[in-house]
Please model this.
Amino acid sequence: MERTIVLLIILLIATSIALISLLFYFKDTMTSRQAGPTPIINELNKVCNNSESSFVVIYHTTRPNTQLFNLLSTSISNAIASNTSNYVNVSFSLCLVNYRSLSSELKNKLTPYQVFPLFGIYSTSADLSKAKLVTAYFDNVEGFYISKSNFTMYMYAYVYNYYGIPILNDLNIYLETTKMPKLDIDEVPVIGSINAGIYIFIYEDAWCPYCAKFHIEVLPALEKHIENGTIALALKNLVVHQEARDIHRYLAAVYIEGKNSTQIRMLIDEIYHRVYTNVYPTTEDVIQLIRSISGFVPDLSKYDVDEIVLKDSREAQHEYGIYATPGFVIWSRERGVGIIVLGYRSIETFLNLIYYIS
Model:
């Protein structure tokens, strides 16, 4: 009898524990289902006119091209539907947001994203996490799915280079960035004062005719701004003609060995004057130039010049979407912002862009 009572008590306790556990499970499930939007979504929802699903484009200064982002919005919506066999079928409304209008909390969340405009998606009516495409190419920042940086740059470069659709309304600006290119003066020649307020980073190729055009036609007109310390030119590598790779390797070694930016400029001027007249110097031609201007020919095996050239190229492509030469980042040290320019521009355009960024 006593044994039966004990067994009944044990059974009652076990049943009670099971019921309590089940109640907590349902409570947690209902809580998660009923959880409201995160503070980030609430903020974006407010500026996006309470849209259930938005394709949010955050820009820094220049308004984005709505034609382009409407196309991207539709394309991504269709891709999500296809990726989930229409299980997640959502149409996004386009929402343009100025970065400066965001709260400090949201700006802090966006710190890792340093090229503008950046885009992301959210939905209060559909579970975007169910789409593998979204989780693969977007970062989940408290319900706001922001395009991963490499995916963003790939999309922009593809659209700009193959379709010619500008990202921003100002056709002379490709993108804006809050990330300054790396400036290691032990590896990067700087023409002008290192304390200049404006830096023009040029990604160039020794056989690039439009790089030559910049150096011959535009740079002399910027000379007075370089001399008075307003502007400095930082020379970066982006090899697109493989025949010019060894030329870049030698130029990098000359600079590392002598730390003389003036010599580098003299060498580059000589090279580009030839390219400007459709005479493309060989590596041997450049070695002779180095010997006559610098008085020595560096031993390439002493320096990791391949890594320097590769680092510059990766930076141009992965950080700024620059895949062809010349490419520029015009950087304001005072404002901590830069503009990305693809291709050759006239002196008038450069002066306007410098004024714009100042």
